[in-house]
Amino acid sequence: MASIRELHQQLIGKERSAVEIVQESLNQIQTLEPMLHSFLQVTSDRALEHAKQIDAKIATGDEIGLLAGIPIAIKDNLCTQGVPTTCASKILQNFVPPYESTVTQKLIDAGAVMVGKTNLDEFAMGGSTETSAYAKTANPWDTSRVPGGSSGGSAAAVAGGECPIALGSDTGGSIRQPASFCGIVGMKPTYGLVSRYGLVAFASSLDQIGPFARSVEDAAILLNAIAGYDPRDSTSLKVDVPDYTQFLASDLKGKRVGVIKETFGEGLDPEVEKAVNRAIEQLKALGAEVKEISCPRFRYGIAAYYIIAPSEASANLARYDGVKYGARVEDAENLMEMYTRTRSEGFGAEVKRRIMIGTYALSAGYYDAYYLKAQKVRTLIKQDFEAAFEQVDVLVSPTAPTTAFKLGDKSQDPLSMYLIDLMTIPVNLAGLPGMSVPCGFDSQGLPIGLQIIGNVLREDQVFQVASAYERLTDWHTRVPKL
Fold first, then answer.
1. 416 is catalytic
2. Disulfide-capable partner of 129 in 137, 163, 225, 323 (CB 3.0 to 4.6 Å)?
């Protein structure tokens, strides 16, 4: 699959039409979907109609932006007007949003062409895209393995060449971890940089929308299009958004890189450790000054997260009651039975588990013991990062402790599934930007990701380090043989 700039050049040079580029993407989807199950909805007619409009603009000599005519996949927890948005849950099976999310509207305005809505863990709760009510997505590098989660459909679609770019959402690692498992670039921006208006809420203080791409530059182009203040999102930041493509660097002279000590050691796959250590040596070769940094409270991230996120989820998911929209059981005898049966038939096991954990943590008598304490731990984790960024510009770690595991391997053991997000969760708790870039393969040919973390709104430094590293290596150019 060509890069955004290459496709753009082909379009303005009239070597190919937008219809041809979009059709190529749709053909690839048709070929691979029986194996991958990346998509819940393929919007072929709408996509080709949009592509024709772009071609008409080119024909009349109108200038087009970089994203015009570029196929993109959208995670199915982002509202798309007139196109079903299910969050991979039975409870939203027939829900068609009457409005467009801010990010998808921005992409429409930029001329990007949505080819479909991608599969995810139900309501974005999971790390393997196995809790979806509709399909289990497979990893393009080995279809017997998971693509990661919760944005596994978007990651698999980009890795499998079904589209050059995609959007995901990241609450505790849901963009970076699948990017690592699928050997592509995935980024979670600073909390508040990208509007959450129209993103179906899981944990409102943690959720953030971000790009998947084959290269760091493509991720920067996509972030340019979706970032920025939105008055409809109360957590949106009023900041100037720079052009992130201007930060793509080829060397790291003078850059200070911190290696988070706590992300190495017990539980880290030796092959992942080796690949990440090799990447750190390459950062040194690019001129970076590398030092070890301790974030001692990092290890409490998972415990704090699995109180805060389910608590927010239990509040957010209370709206699915069978009254306003979404599924509703028909033959209930009274209101209470209708609520209970709608939810017990509409929600899957993982979603129910998290709602119960959250409701318990927020209940009278337990609020102080659990929720309040978790928020205090969150503050301590933030302070660890603040202290670290006084000494370095960016932090690095493995993105995930292992490579992609087999489908079904962790389904019966929620705790081992939760531990997969060990390295990514603290970044969400602190609201920082983080990116996963491919940094190697294990002996089974499965991709490994390097996580690069920046300070608040220092996406520029994350892009500098990521692009310099990418230019030195060829991991991002490798594609699965499907």
1. no
2. 137
pLDDT in tens, 468-477: 999 999 999 9
Give CA 206 to chain center in angstroms: 12
> CA–CA separation, 262 vs 384, rounded Å?
12
Q: Is the dihedral of CA 416, 418, 419, 420 positive or negative?
A: positive
CATH T-level assignment (fold) for domain 4-255 = Amidase signature (AS) enzymes (3.90.1300)
* Nearest by Cα to 68 from 5, 157, 117: 5
Residue 30's CB is within 10 A of a number of other CB atoms, namely: 12
Q: Would you give the DSSP letter of residue 121?
A: S
Is 90 marked active-site?
A: no
Confirm if 112 and 64 have CB atoms less than 8 A apart: no
Catalytic residue selected from 150, 180, 314, 397: 150
Burial class of 481 by CB neighbour count within 10 A (0 to 12, 13 to 18, 19+)? exposed
Residue showing tokens 């998972």: 302
Would you tell me how many other CB atoms lie within 10 Å of the CB of residue 360? Answer: 15
Q: How far apart (Å, rounded) are the C-alpha atoms in residues 324 and 123?
A: 18
Residue 210 pairs in a beta bridge with: 168
Q: Structure tokens of 357?
A: 């954990």
Confidence label for 257 from pLDDT (cuts 50, 70 and 90): very high
For residue 354, the number of C-alpha atoms closer than 13 Å in the C-beta half-sphere is 29
Could you tell me the pLDDT band of residue 412, with boundaries at 50, 70 and 90? Answer: confident
Closest CA to 199 of 231, 233, 224, 172: 233
Which of 323-351 are b and which e, b meaning 16 or more Cβ less than 10 Å from the residue's Cβ? eebbbbbeeeeeeeebbebbbeebbbebb
Q: What is the DSSP string of 100-114?
A: --HHHHHHHHHT-EE
Q: How far apart are CA 295 and CA 4, in angstroms?
A: 37
Best CA proximity match to 461, nearest among 242, 307, 180? 242
Could you tell me if 88 and 40 are in contact, meaning their C-beta atoms sit under 8 angstroms apart? yes
Q: Sign of the CA dihedral 59, 64, 67, 73?
A: negative
Q: Which pair of structure tokens corresponds to residue 316?
A: 């957010």
Residue from 38, 75, 151, 255 carrying the catalytic annotation: 75
Q: Which of 174, 195, 215, 436 is catalytic?
A: 174
